[in-house]
Design goal:
The chain is mostly beta strands. 6% of the residues lie in helices and 51% in strands. The chain is built from two helices and 17 strands. It has a 15-stranded mixed β-sheet that branches. It has a two-stranded antiparallel sheet with strand order 1-2. A hairpin with a 2-residue loop joins strand 8 and strand 9. The longest helix has 8 residues. The radius of gyration is 18 Å and the shape is elongated. It starts with 6 loop residues before the first strand and ends in a 9-residue tail after the last strand.
Length: 237
């Protein structure tokens, strides 16, 4: 059984595995049609504001003495793919019916320091289980933690969770690289259903810590969708 810390200390703050991105409710989302993550970073370099751009959304954090910064507002981007280009990563590669790699970068500014943190999930299917390798690289070094779950893709309806892994993942201290393999035969063994519907692995409740501040990153890193058949193995189809 793979074991990682169930709670991780970040600047004196214990973060349980069950923690989800929270804090104050953000203001109504704004839209900046001319802005992608790279442009937003260039415009706001040196502003002193704390913000993170991830999965098509910029989250701006309020100034606060709290360990976990409250959200001040969110900004929806119309060209989020530029974030991946700026980070030098490929967002999705389906290697076969049973293997896929997905990378989503976090581009952020904390206490005036810029960070680029590509987060990757590599999924290898074994029947109705999967090896899930989760990793990140960072420049400069930073602490990032998250949780993992399996979700059903409900197309036009809200996705729902079918299984949540009990551990927290990531590094409790600043590092330039981190990797962990959640083995197919550990807690997630045989947790992919047998109903012919589509499912995906979801890295969520992402928290980034630097300079004594903790930022809840809105959004998640999702594997490619797999169809889980009633009589044969799940496949990326």
């Amino acid at each position: 059984m793979a074991v990682v810390l169930a709670s991780i200390a970040l600047g004196g703050l214990a973060v349980p595995a069950s923690a989800v991105a929270g804090g104050s409710e953000p203001a109504a989302s704004q839209v900046d049609p001319a802005t992608d993550c790279a442009e937003y970073a260039a415009r706001n370099s040196g502003s002193g504001a704390d913000w993170a751009c991830f999965a098509g959304t910029v989250t701006v954090f309020a100034k606060s003495d709290a360990a976990v910064l409250p959200v001040a507002k969110t900004i929806a981007l119309t060209k989020p793919a530029a974030a991946r280009c700026a980070a030098g990563v490929t967002p999705l590669v389906v290697a076969s019916d049973y293997i896929s790699n997905v990378t989503e970068p976090i581009i952020a500014s904390i206490s005036g320091v810029g960070y680029t943190v590509p987060v990757t999930v590599r999924t290898v299917i074994y029947n109705h289980s999967a090896d899930v390798k989760m990793s990140y690289t960072a420049s400069p070094a930073v602490s990032v933690i998250w949780s993992l779950r399996i979700r059903r893709d409900n197309n036009l309806a809200t996705d729902d969770t079918v299984f949540t892994y009990p551990e927290a993942y990531g590094s409790s201290y600043a590092t330039s690289s981190y990797s962990f393999l959640e083995d197919a035969y550990s807690e997630g063994y045989n947790q992919l259903p047998y109903d012919g519907k589509k499912y995906f692995y979801d890295l969520y409740a992402i928290r980034m810590s630097a300079s004594g501040k903790v930022l809840n990153i809105l959004g998640s890193v999702q594997s490619d969708r797999m169809t889980c058949y009633k009589t044969v193995s799940c496949k990326f189809k």
